[in-house]
Amino acid sequence: MTAFLLIWSPRKWPWPELPEVCAAVARGDTVVDTWGCGFARSLIPGDRVFIHRVAKEPKGLFGSGWVTHAPYEVPDTTRKRGYRLCIDFHYDYLVDAHDRVVVDRDALRTHPFSVQTWDAQASGTVIKPMVEGPLEKLWAERTGLRRGKAPR
Question: Which of 47, 22, 96, 58 minimizes the C-alpha distance to 6?
Fold first, then answer.
């Protein structure tokens, strides 16, 4: 399994529906979302994703899920190349990052997490293998999720 970082900047996308999405995930509903993945084409179904809030406090990781559809092109006339790459994934955990995150930036600055570049400008950054295991362990401790199990 490979893990990737998805980026959310509230300055670029306010995401007013986030509380409702969080409530659906908390109820156990299957919530599928589409997310831009920058230039990354290597994501495949079953890969792990973590969502990172950037640009405004609180900064840090606040959601996770599993890729259900590999990157595909979506027309976008605002982009120089005329499209953007997106993935589909479903959430397994999500909190309202307007108010809080699960793993804040201070925790991400400690070893072994500090070897990862968290300030990515676009989604789709691979989470380094030496960070992936400890991150899954910390995520499981803080969320109560079972570690590293993709749904079937």
Answer: 47
Euclidean distance between CA atoms 8 and 1, whole angstroms: 23
HSE, side-chain direction, 13 A CA sphere, residue 151: 11
Enclosing H/E stretch for 27: helix 18-27
Q: In the prediction, which pLDDT does 90 show? A: 97
CA dist 13 to 1, 10, 119, 124, Å? 29, 5, 17, 17
pLDDT score recorded for residue 118: 92
So what CATH class is 3-143?
Answer: alpha beta
pTM: 0.93
Backbone angles phi, psi at 53, to 5 degrees: -85, 130
> What are the boundaries of each domain within the chain?
3-143
pLDDT in tens, 8-31: 999 999 999 999 999 999 999 999
